[in-house]
Amino acid sequence: MMFAVLTLVAASLFYRFHKGKPILLPRITNVDFKETWRSGQSDRHFPSGLAQAPGILWIVIAQNRLQVGPHFPFNLALVAEAFGWDHSVPGNSILDVRVVSSGTAAGAVTIRYRHLTGDEETLHLVVQDRAAFLAALAKIRSK
Questions:
Q1: Which CATH topology does 2-141 take?
Q2: What is the rounded distance in angstroms from the CA atom of residue 64 to the CA atom of residue 2?
Q3: Which of 4, 21, 44, 46 could hold 16 in an S-S bridge, CB 3.0 to 4.6 Å?
């Protein structure tokens, strides 16, 4: 059993390295917004709509991109890939931003964006400073 777990972790590390996905929170310059240990959810595919990332995400807006990813060790064992917790979204791909106000946590924002393939995805994030997050998103969308 331990061998299977170690193999899955090693495969996950190899996959993330091969795809250029960070293992630890990357050092990003010219940051317009940054919060860590936040919650979120994606509708990327079937299992992702069922599983929320409960306070394990980092969210960064910098260099005309919204970047979201799970903190280590929550990005291991291919969990982030299964539940759609990794995102790197160019500002000009964001189609819609909505503030979620009823029945959810304060600071909830829903972002709909288009992939290079043309597919659309919705990302639901809970941030602490919603006003700063919305301002940073508006800034990268206008470029």
A1: PH-domain like (2.30.29)
A2: 42
A3: 21
